[in-house]
Amino acid sequence: MHEIGALVRDGLVAQGMESRSRGGRPSRVVELSDTVQFLAIDVGTVSISAGTTNAYLEVLETVEEPTDLKAGPASVMAQIEECARRLTGDARGPLRVAGVGIGIPSPVSVELGEPVDPALMPGWDRFPIRDQLSERLGVPVSVDKDANLMVLGEGHRGAAQGIEDCLFVKLGSGISCGIVVGGSLYRGHSGAAGDIGHVPAGNSDVPCHCGRRGCVEAQVGAAALGARALAAARSGESPFLAERLASTGTLVGMDLALANAAGDPAAARIIRETGALIGEALSALVNFFNPERIVLGGPSAAFGPPLLTEVHSAILKRSSSLSTAGLVVMSSTLGKTSGLIGAARLASDTFLTSLSRSH
């Protein structure tokens, strides 16, 4: 009771109405204060999304702007701070939030709050994101891999809610996986769990930026899909993509979704082949881990049912009947919001842990 009183004095919780008595002294409902907010930041290879949430992780306001991770830490960290201050209205000094959660497209040393061997973030290896951002913003900062935060978001209010054993597969510039075991996020011994982009798939000899060949990321990552769309346009195989290339001057992987929706056979074939490769890469994980659900998220998940069908079909072909019994493969229900909600959840967990230690 003394701990609750301290939290009330600190303005972190509010005491509501008394609950109905069951024979003894009626208890008073305790709610998190409206003043408690978290800042969530989702850093991608080409954009930064940021949002504020209340204590219940409901998104209040968001901003998004283009970025270039390859520009290096100095300019991107300045962008992150600018987004944070614009959202909170704190032009200087410590932010008026209880904590900050940030997701990045890289394996992360959660203990140190820094990326490790980030293939998509040249110049960022072992950069002290957590410590530098905490110093800039004046509040506690927690950092994790983006796919880990996405599965936390889906578990809080999305496709993984109530699911004890789940894989969240992020399909974008990189291919990564967030893993939930027994209802809890699993990071592995050193934080590298779920780095599936370099699992081999197909019979491809395609070189990967990691130095090996045949990695699934090298074949179905955003850059690879953009290259396939461009090849289909230039060869004349896809009139739709050829026309789009002529009007825009460039093509990206998501143009395949537009072409497929317009009934383009070449785009449909590329999407089917993409799903088959992803399903092949996931089949070994299904046999090993036996998840209840696989959730596909990230930009390429927008390919929708054609992709889902091929992923599921490839898993069924290559995995045991027992490991696939009752397995559900579905798209994220939160879309781009999953990373923000997950980042807020990370900040909230850090905040609550610090409260329990201090009270």
List keywords for this structure.
single chain, 359 residues, Nucleotidyltransferase, domain 5, 3 domains, five-stranded mixed beta sheet, 14 strands, 41% helix
Short description:
With 359 residues, the chain is an alpha/beta fold.
Question: Please, how many domains?
Answer: 3
For the largest beta-sheet, the strand count, sense and barrel status come to: 5 strands, mixed
- What's the helix count? 12
Question: How many β-strand runs?
Answer: 14
Helical fraction equals 40-55%
Percent of residues in beta strands?
15-25%
Secondary-structure element sequence? HEEEEEHEEEHEHEEEHHHHHEHHEH
Q: Taking strands numbered 1, 2, ... along the chain, how are they ordered across the largest sheet?
A: 5-4-3-6-9
- Flag low-confidence runs: 1-9, 26-30
State the fourth-level CATH superfamily of the largest domain.
ATPase, nucleotide binding domain
Which class of the largest domain in CATH terms?
Alpha Beta
Q: Report the average pLDDT across residues.
A: 91
Q: What is the 3D form?
A: globular
Structural class: alpha/beta
Distance between the termini: 11 Å
CATH topology assignment of the largest domain: Nucleotidyltransferase, domain 5
Rg, Cα atoms, Å: 22 Å
CATH architecture of the largest domain: 2-Layer Sandwich
